[in-house]
Amino acid sequence: MSLFEDNAAILGNMEANGSDLGPPRSIDFSHVFPDQSSAVAFAREAEREGFSTTVTEIDGEATWDVTASKEMVPTCANITDTEERLDALARLHRGHSDGWGFFRV
Fold it and tell me: Which of 9, 17, 28, 81 is most buried, by CB atoms within 10 Å?
């Protein structure tokens, strides 16, 4: 199954369970890095692209999480395009994508 198909299934399930996917909202894209310097370098680049970021050490795992958030309409195309773009950027800094989410309304 492709990333687009996975995201379509997730969004379809959310909508079937009563979530209104129409209004824009902040969507959080999570990324994992092997060290703090890689995480911070990715966060700075994501911020230059208009994302707000948080950098957090993952307790007991010696890895770092960066959440890059941006307000958008949660369509499959928007989420998939953003997830792919951020994953490519994370890989430049020895990291990778680790999913996305948002508060349901």
Answer: 28
CA distance linking residue 95 with residue 42, whole number of Å:
8
**pTM as predicted:** 0.93
Asked if residues 69 and 27 have their Cβ atoms less than 8 Å apart, the reply is: yes
Neighbours of 5 (CB within 10 A): 11
Q: What is the CATH number of the domain that holds 83?
A: 3.30.70.970
Q: What is residue 12's three-state secondary structure?
A: helix
Q: Which residue has the tokens 């994953």?
A: 87
In a domain, 65, yes or no: yes
**Residue 78, CA distances (Å) to 11, 25, 37 in order:** 12, 12, 29
How far apart (Å, rounded) are the C-alpha atoms in residues 34 and 20? Answer: 36
Q: Which two tokens stand for residue 80?
A: 């998939």
Candidates 92, 63, 89, 75; CA nearest to 55 is: 63
